[in-house]
Design brief:
The complex is a heterodimer of chains A (about 550) and B (about 180). Chain A has about 550 residues and is an all-alpha fold. Chain A has a single domain, classed as Cytochrome C Oxidase, Chain A, CATH 1.20.210.10. Chain A contains 17 helices and no strands. Chain B has a single domain (about 30-185), classed as Up-down Bundle (Four Helix Bundle (Hemerythrin (Met), subunit A)). Chain B is about 85% helix and about 0% strand. In chain B, α5 (about 80-105) packs antiparallel against α6 (about 115-150) and α6 packs antiparallel against α7. The interface of A and B includes residues 182 and 212 of A.
């Protein structure tokens, strides 16, 4: 945490133990981001292990049992311990600033949320010391996850870790939602909320609606494993498919929980670096609401291969394709925002543009997976791995990097290096396409996901090697990012309050902001309050 | 309940009440998932449920729990500790009833591990029981705080505990319907 401790000026409060006791939304935001960065590094190392093992056919770098644990923990780590804390961390830091609030609605609960989320992660990783990590995949399908087939304690730690982490995430979501609904400064109407705040609000509502279904499924699995229950035991009338239904009722909204805040970050960055207000503010906000509603009606598209009825297939295929419409609306809004703008390709903007391009690829392969016969062909293959990584890495993580470069000066008072930032972006962009684009072809050729190795005569060797080289490039990109962060913290140029000529309230206070955020509570009369203040002659129409 | 809450302090402007409402939404999704599992397995366990569940006796204890919503409403309306104690007593009696039902079922060899009926029954009713217990803890905390430092307890604390208690009660309406009345269909 010591590196993290440098991120924020400590003000008058004590350093060190202060991080354990803090209830300040900015410090808790930094703690969340620190947790996300740490687990992102751990999950990344796990991914490198997987790619090293798969680089050549018939390799035996790691034991099969270790491989199974590595891909399981990689998935859980990246989704629940890296991406979600990163997004929640940025929301925690930025949302109160953007709406002109002194803190979140419940500062102490905020600390509880963070520590529960972290405890969940530690519980999951404690499984390594307790006899072996879970090795049943991140969605831990029953009956494989039942005690009869996975007798070790790994799945039990998975259950406890996810349940505790989920409780923290739910409490945090309630906190942020109430903050956004009730803590806005005078004039900050719902129709003037910055889009990152809009997306965060929708995300929190998705968390409140989706995470409890996972908690319930985890309780059932725990009853099966620890009390000898029969929920998912087909031998006594239980239905393993019930796990899949409950898991994906959580799991698909979870996809949007992970991407909507990143879309929000991009929706902040693109207008500022285009020198224009966002095109079609209402459409961007409303399409997010549409995505949120639809996301609760698409879960069984993860289950086309289990033998759904014809009506179910048609329903879930149609709803899944429908969700591409509001998503496409956003893409065109961002492009239209850039059109005719004075574009500045600083690092945040590069990552935002990368987000659009990569998310379109991931979105299109997603639509192809909604076509039931295609799904039957490529289900559980590397095609799915390629798709989800285009969405989560090419989408969410590029969005997070855009947000990180955009808000780092606000959080630290220092600028990151543009030169290293450009290196970081281009290495990431090349690396992620090298890693994940060939996986489409591997999947189409029939390479199943989660295999420990493959025979040479399958012909999968060359593309796997390309993919593993891409992973190494990605690792190099992350090292550049780490170097940039450390350099920026130590000797970055002073940023000033408003280094990007921003539009929203966080840029109106000091960098980093004082404990109560604003010297006087701000008053707002448009969608771009800081623009209005800087250009009294050309204010936005109220 | 919502109509009460919109009076003072109002639902849509009070942080605590809005948070409690969102918490209850998340809890509803949680219980709904468990109820869905129970209903999905209803047929597999129906014969056992019909043979072993004591509807009349549980209905009696359910009436105690349902009436505790009324005492809670009185407690909340006057911030009256006596009505609060009555609520806790009714809740505790309900839990005793559940406990005796559990003891009877376990004695006749029906437990979480015996078959699907036991698994689903004990999970659903057990999770509800844990929520009643949490409600009793909240009532106890409110009771103690309002006695020791009455001025430090804001009216909204009463409101919040009451809303949660009504929710626990409402869940039992669904559980009693699905588990006990379900055997009559």
């Amino acid at each position: 945490m010591s590196a993290v401790a440098l991120w924020v000026r400590r003000g008058e409060r004590a350093a060190g133990a202060g991080w354990l006791r803090t209830v300040d939304h900015k410090e808790i935001g930094v703690l969340y981001i620190g947790m996300g960065v740490a687990f992102f590094a751990i999950g990344g190392i796990e991914a490198l292990l997987l790619r090293a093992q798969l680089a050549f056919p018939q390799e035996s770098l790691v034991e099969p049992a270790v491989y199974d644990q590595a891909f399981t923990v990689h998935g859980v780590t990246m989704i629940l311990l890296a991406v979600v804390p990163l997004l929640v961390g940025f929301a925690n830091y930025v949302v109160p600033l953007m709406i002109g609030a002194p803190d979140v609605a419940y500062p102490r609960l905020n600390a509880l949320s963070f520590w529960l989320s972290l405890l969940g992660g530690l519980l999951l990783y404690f499984s390594f010391a307790a006899g072996g990590a879970p090795d049943t995949g991140w969605f831990s399908y029953a009956p494989l996850s039942e005690r009869a087939f996975t007798p070790g304690s790994g799945v039990d730690y998975y259950i406890l870790g996810l349940a505790v982490n989920g409780a923290g995430t739910i409490i945090g979501a309630i906190n942020l939602a109430v903050t956004i609904l009730l803590m806005r400064c005078p004039g900050m109407t719902v129709g003037r909320l910055p889009l990152f705040v809009w997306m965060t609000l929708i995300t929190t509502l998705l968390i409140i609606g989706a995470y409890p279904a996972l908690s319930a499924a985890l309780v059932m699995l725990l009853v099966d494993r620890q009390l000898g229950g029969h929920f998912f035991d087909p031998g006594t009338g239980g239905q393993p498919l019930l796990w899949q239904h409950l898991f994906w009722f959580f799991g698909h909204p979870e996809v949007y929980i992970m991407v909507l805040p990143a879309m929000g970050m991009v929706s902040e960055v693109i207008p500022v670096f285009s020198g224009k207000p966002i095109f079609g503010y209402r459409f961007v906000a409303a399409s997010s609401v549409a995505i949120a509603f639809l996301s609760f009606g698409v879960w069984a598209h993860h289950m086309f291969a289990v033998g759904l009825s014809g009506a179910e297939q048609v329903f879930f295929a149609a709803s899944s394709m429908l969700i591409a419409v509001p998503t496409g609306v956003k893409i065109f809004n961002w492009l239209a925002t850039m059109m005719g703008g004075r574009l500045r390709f600083a690092t945040p903007m590069l990552f935002a543009c990368g987000f659009i391009a990569m998310f379109v690829v991931g979105g299109l392969s997603g639509v192809s997976l909604a076509v039931v016969p295609i799904d039957w062909q490529v289900t559980d293959s590397y095609y799915v791995v390629a798709h989800l990584h285009y969405v989560l890495f090419g989408g969410t993580m590029l969005g997070v990097f855009a947000g990180a470069y955009y808000w780092f000066p606000k959080m630290t008072g220092r600028l990151l290096s543009e030169r290293l930032g450009h290196w970081h972006f281009w290495l990431t962009f090349v690396g992620l396409n090298l890693t994940f684009l060939p996986q489409h072809w591997l999947g189409a050729q029939g390479m199943p996901r989660r295999v420990f190795t493959y025979a040479a005569d399958t012909g999968w060797g060359p593309w796997n090697l390309v993919s593993s080289v891409g992973a190494a490039v990605l690792a190099a990109a992350m090292l550049v990012f780490a170097a940039n962060l450390l350099r920026g913290l130590r000797s970055g140029e002073p940023a000033g309050d408003d280094p990007w000529d921003g539009f929203t309230l966080e840029w109106s206070t000091t960098s980093p902001p004082p404990p109560a955020n604003f010297s006087r509570p701000p008053t707002v009369r448009g969608k771009r309050p800081l623009w209005d203040r800087k250009h009294p002659d050309a204010m936005d129409p109220g | 309940m919502i109509a009460r809450a919109t009076r003072t302090p109002a639902f849509a402007t009070d942080r605590t009440l809005l948070g409690v409402a969102m918490f209850i939404v998340s809890e509803s999704v949680f219980f709904l998932s468990i109820v869905v599992a129970y209903v999905a397995y209803r047929n597999a366990g129906l014969a056992e449920a019909r043979a072993h569940l004591d509807i009349g006796r549980t209905a009696l204890f359910s009436v105690l729990l349902f009436s505790s919503s009324w005492t809670m409403a009185r407690a909340n309306a006057g911030q009256d500790r006596r009505w609060l104690a009555a609520t806790a007593l009714l809740g505790a009696l309900f839990l005793l009833g559940q406990g005796s039902e559990y003891a009877r079922l376990l004695a006749s060899g029906i437990g979480p591990a015996s078959a699907l009926f036991g698994t689903t029954f004990f999970t659903l009713t057990g999770l509800h029981g844990v929520h009643v217990l949490a409600g009793l803890a909240a009532i106890a905390a409110l009771f103690a705080a309002s006695r020791r430092r009455p001025r430090a307890v804001r009216p909204v604390a009463w409101e919040a505990v009451a809303i949660y208690w009504h929710f626990v009660d409402a869940v039992w309406v669904v559980v009693f319907g699905a588990v006990y009345l379900g055997t009559l269909l």
